[in-house]
């Protein structure tokens, strides 16, 4: 999103995080702007029963955790590395200066936040009113549009695990598996070597 060279110019540092390492915790106040150089990050929290709910999954060249940074509010979720990842960290005062001095970047950040709000409102409606198959397909189509899933001769490879799909849609893993199989029978999805394609 923001060119790494520009982030470095304003004082950003690159930091490596190992798989399952916590980047920030729910309840902490934000201090940095985070942008992924490589890897995969999830933001999630747990309900009283210990069930994980994934708020979002983020990939290379995406940023995460900005709303609390702008609002100076505590993080509503944990950020955890799904795999080994490299992230640029820019301290909040330097990030605000960067935005103040680069209006085109500010517009990109606003567009990115609007896109996330739109996704949240669409998924909230899906989760509350639609059947599992519809929810799964909607999430997959959103992933294709916004997460740059790779396309090959089989179609778009869906990089979400069955558990991640469940955590993002509020469905149990068993329900996700049944929904994917039903969608395969309808010709909406393909399952090749246990991988899901659209």
UniProtKB/TrEMBL annotation:
Q: Does the keyword Iron apply?
A: no
Keywords from UniProt, A to Z, are:
DNA-binding, Transcription, Transcription regulation
Give start and end of each HTH crp-type domain: 130-198
This protein is called what? Crp/Fnr family transcriptional regulator
- Which intervals of the chain form a coiled coil? none
For the Cyclic nucleotide-binding domain, which residue ranges apply? 15-116
Q: What organism is recorded for this protein?
A: Flavobacterium endoglycinae
Note whether Transmembrane helix occurs among the keywords: no
Q: Which SUPFAM superfamilies match?
A: cAMP-binding domain-like, Winged helix' DNA-binding domain
């Amino acid at each position: 999103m923001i060119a790494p060279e520009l982030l470095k110019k304003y004082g950003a540092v690159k930091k490596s995080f190992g798989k399952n390492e916590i980047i920030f915790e729910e309840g902490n106040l934000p201090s940095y702007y985070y942008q992924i150089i490589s890897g995969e990050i999830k933001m999630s929290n747990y309900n009283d029963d210990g069930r994980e709910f994934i708020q979002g999954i983020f990939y290379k060249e995406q940023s995460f955790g900005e709303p609390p940074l702008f609002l100076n509010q505590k993080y509503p979720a944990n950020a955890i590395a799904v795999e080994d990842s490299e992230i640029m960290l820019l301290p909040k005062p330097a990030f605000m200066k960067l935005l103040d001095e680069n209006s085109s970047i500010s517009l990109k950040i606003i567009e990115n936040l609007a896109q996330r709000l739109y996704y949240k409102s669409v998924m909230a409606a899906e989760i509350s009113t639609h059947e599992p198959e519809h929810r799964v397909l909607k999430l997959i189509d959103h992933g294709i549009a916004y997460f740059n899933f790779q396309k090959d001769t089989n179609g778009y490879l869906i990089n979400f695990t069955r558990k991640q799909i469940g955590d993002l849609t509020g469905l149990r893993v068993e329900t996700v598996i049944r929904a994917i199989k039903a969608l395969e029978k309808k010709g909406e999805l393909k399952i090749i070597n246990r991988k899901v394609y659209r």
